[in-house]
Design brief:
By secondary structure, the chain is of the alpha/beta class. The chain is built from 9 helices and 10 strands. The protein has a 6-stranded mixed sheet with strand order 6-7-8-3-9-10, with helices on both faces. A 4-stranded antiparallel sheet has the order 2-1-4-5, with helices on one face. It is globular, with a radius of gyration of 19 Å.
Length: 261
């Protein structure tokens, strides 16, 4: 019996991103399948973070559409967008935690805003989510009192508070040492399996790309469009685009110059 075709969870169609007359990327067309760990990659200045902002609705496209589970996000009303966003979890490079709030207060915020849980139920969920990311017992700590890696994990606990269908990451390993970065990769894999989320991430970290990614798109700064799409391991070994092979085969030292925007 043939396996059923994978379900398209996010569909980017004919997307052009521009700031006024300056085109950043044009004619982007690619699907992200349900359950993917999907990486947006490319050299510095190619538009990786800009694409993520378009997918989140922080920027509006010059042309084209982005669909979630077949529903247009680009053409949706504000109310419809809010409903769609409730199925997302988002973490930013800095973590985005509120410094004046404890970890418990940070993680409980989306539960207070979007559920009718009692205070006891919220506390139970917060305890569980913090334990999932290895921060059980740190509920009363403030972000400044913990390490950078722990802040990343706390931000992840907040992002999964509502059991999202999609998790977005912007350079999740930025600023972390190699050991903390690998632990975060392992945690993303574990959470993806436990909550069944589709993961979309911007990163230039080769170790992360090869450790956890199942699919990817490569944005090219020179041609201002996507020039390859697929499993990054296959692209590294057999892409028809030399720049893609070079990007994925570069040394860790060389990678320092290929960072985010």
């Amino acid at each position: 019996m043939n396996e059923s075709a994978p379900e398209v969870h996010i569909d980017v169609r004919d997307l052009t991103m521009a700031f006024g007359p300056k085109v950043i990327q044009r004619d982007l067309n690619f699907p992200i399948y349900r359950g993917d760990i999907f990486v947006i990659m490319g050299g510095s200045g190619c538009g990786k973070s800009t694409l993520l902002k378009h997918m989140l609705g922080l920027l509006e496209p010059a042309a084209g559409d982005i669909l979630y589970s077949g529903q247009s996000f680009t053409r949706a009303s504000s109310a419809e967008r809010d409903v769609m966003r409730r199925g997302w979890g988002i973490t930013y490079q800095s973590g985005g935690l509120f410094s004046a709030m404890t970890l418990e207060q940070n993680v409980s915020l989306p539960l207070q805003l979007y559920t009718d849980y009692t205070a006891t139920q919220i506390a139970d969920v917060v305890d569980y989510k913090l334990s999932l990311v290895g921060l059980g017992g740190f509920q009363s700590y403030y972000p400044a009192e913990i390490s950078g890696g722990m802040r990343k994990r706390a931000a992840l606990a907040r992002a999964i508070a509502l059991d999202p269908q999609i998790l977005f990451f912007d350079e999740p390993s930025a600023g972390l040492d190699p050991i903390s970065s690998r632990l975060l990769d392992d945690l993303i894999l574990e959470l993806k399996e436990s909550i069944g989320a589709t993961v979309v991430m911007v990163t230039h970290e080769l170790e992360s790309i090869f450790a956890i990614a199942t699919n990817s798109v490569y944005l090219d700064a020179s041609s201002r469009t996507m020039i390859d799409y697929g499993d990054p391991r296959q692209l590294r070994d057999s892409s028809e685009q030399p720049v893609v092979r070079q990007f994925l085969a570069r040394s860790a030292a060389a990678g320092e110059d290929m960072g985010s925007e």
